[in-house]
Amino acid sequence: MAASEFAAWVRDFATERDRRAAGADPDWESGAVLSPAVRASIQRFQLGEDGDGANLIAKADAAGDPHYTAAVRLFEDEEHNHARLLARLLEAGGATTSAGHWSDTVFARMRRAVGLHAELLLLMVAEVVALRYYRALRDGTEDPLTSEVARRILADEERHIPFHCARLHASIAQLPRAARRPVLAGWRMLLLGAGLVVAADHGRALRELGVGRGRFLADVAGSAGPVVAAIVGTDPPRVPAELAEPAAAARPPHPHPHPRSGYRLRPRA
Ligand SMILES: [Fe+2]
Ligand SMILES: [Fe+2]
């Protein structure tokens, strides 16, 4: 992807930042009713959203495209806002944030240990799993505040997938052709592993939200194909249909839709 296209992503993220700043927060005063299982589940995802983005920003900076670095900074701001929203939701439900969990420590160490492209592949695993989780939370909870927080986060995560796909598309293209298939097969295995961990650890919460472990895992695994297709360039970067908001198809068409899918290829101009 050309640097100028990441300039468009900077505008996209900046537009979202300005929209956030101009809009009101959810009504925290209304309070939240969180079951013990959902509360514990949200505490875990809050930890995951609260990661330190300095490492990714440094790697993006070293890659030498100032537009991409600026976009990554704004992306990290969105992830920190997700952590803030989930912390406020927990507070509204009379709970606190969690101190830490082994899976977040392992994930953070893995991210730090690798280069930019491998970190983006790891990050994409987390994004794809999170997308299915927040959809379950938005649609499955009976608590209005929880559903509103999940809706806001989900809307951001749906933009993060094509953003990472755009960068990974350029990265994969630089790999020898023979190496691409094993790399992406490894990514699929990582996604499956992460889906298994989340399905196991959040099984009770997911069941309360109306999504069984098997269905959660099947949806996560099924989303690998469209993401891989977007990375290798046989399909445009887009949110996999099975993970997208059901209402997405009813939205007004983007000014620059892909001729086949109708999903936007680029951030808003
Ligand atoms: Fe997030
Ligand atoms: Fe994200």
Outline the structure in words:
There is one protein chain. The chain has one domain: Up-down Bundle (Ferritin), CATH 1.20.1260.10. It contains eleven helices and no strands. It has 269 residues and is mainly alpha-helical. One fe (ii) ion (FE2) binds next to helix 7. Residues 79, 127, 157, 160 line the site of one fe (ii) ion (FE2).
Q: In a few lines, what is going on in this structure?
A:
Residues 240-269 are annotated as: Disordered. The protein is an all-alpha fold.
The total beta strand count reads: 0
Attached small molecules:
fe (ii) ion
- Beta-strand percent range: under 5%
Shape: globular
Low-confidence stretches: 239-243, 246-265
Q: Class, according to the CATH hierarchy?
A: Mainly Alpha
Helix and strand succession?
Answer: HHHHHHHHHHH
Organism: Kitasatospora camelliae
Biased composition (Low complexity): 240-251
GO molecular function, one term: oxidoreductase activity
Protein name: Ferritin-like domain-containing protein
